[in-house]
Amino acid sequence: MAKVGKRYKKAQEMVDRSKTYEIEKALEIAKSSATAKFDESMDVAVNLGVDPKHADQMVRGTVVLPHGAGKKVRVVAIAKGEKDTEAKEAGADYVGSEDIIKKIQDGWLDFDKVVATPDVMSMVGKLGKVLGPRGMMPNPKTGTVTFDIGRAVKEIKSGKIEFKVEKAGIVHCSFGKASFDLAKLLENFKAFITAVIKLKPASSKGKYFKAITISSTMGVGVKVDTTEVMNLVKI
């Protein structure tokens, strides 16, 4: 069994594992437990009452966090002509078409997100085996395949994130940094939770939020009162 460090033990003492907390208190505890030497991410894990094995219960979407995720996102835009220029002006870090595709095929992966226009997807399809397993393949469902490529780039650079339910029915999301003040973390959290609620499948029966836990990268998990969260969010 791995040895538990003094810092983690101290963080554990801040949390009563037998209870759930109101979201603001949970955020305060999770933020306080972030004592690493780097600026830890604030993460949320939501256990949903869905069965992802059924296509009609898949929960997948995007959300623009009001205050961003607190990290720089390097965006590749694959487009031609005027759309190439549009992507550059919107702030894309790398822009191109055949040249970018070949560079990625040759092993270059120094980026975080890829967006593309529909007319180049026949070429981008060659990158499926490279980008697919890394979750970076452009997809119309997440807004990364669009002719409005300038808007797509701006949204990603300003804090747009993607999320998808895993096989166990859990959705994970990083919604800020421990250095963010509580008000910003709360607004980002609410934006994410609202997006998840809006995507509730009609075929999902019973309790939608089975459990919600927030934590910093190296901190302890803090269970959140799911009823309070549902009441907090106005749809």
From TrEMBL:
GO CC annotations on file: large ribosomal subunit
Pfam families in the record: Ribosomal_L1 (PF00687)
Regions crossing the membrane: none
GO biological processes: regulation of translation; translation
UniProt keyword list: Repressor, Ribonucleoprotein, Ribosomal protein, RNA-binding, rRNA-binding, Translation regulation, tRNA-binding
Classification via InterPro entries: Ribosom_uL1_bac-type (IPR005878), Ribosomal_uL1 (IPR002143), Ribosomal_uL1-like (IPR023674), Ribosomal_uL1/biogenesis (IPR028364), Ribosomal_uL1_3-a/b-sand (IPR016095), Ribosomal_uL1_CS (IPR023673)
CDD domains: Ribosomal_L1
A GO term for molecular function: structural constituent of ribosome
HAMAP family: Ribosomal_uL1_B
PANTHER family: 54S RIBOSOMAL PROTEIN L1, MITOCHONDRIAL, LARGE RIBOSOMAL SUBUNIT PROTEIN UL1M
The protein's assembly and partners: Part of the 50S ribosomal subunit.
Function: Protein L1 is also a translational repressor protein, it controls the translation of the L11 operon by binding to its mRNA.
NCBIfam families in UniProt: rplA_bact
Record family assignment: Belongs to the universal ribosomal protein uL1 family.
Protein's name according to its UniProt entry: Large ribosomal subunit protein uL1
Source organism of the structure: Candidatus Gottesmanbacteria bacterium GW2011_GWC2_39_8
Gene name in the database record: rplA
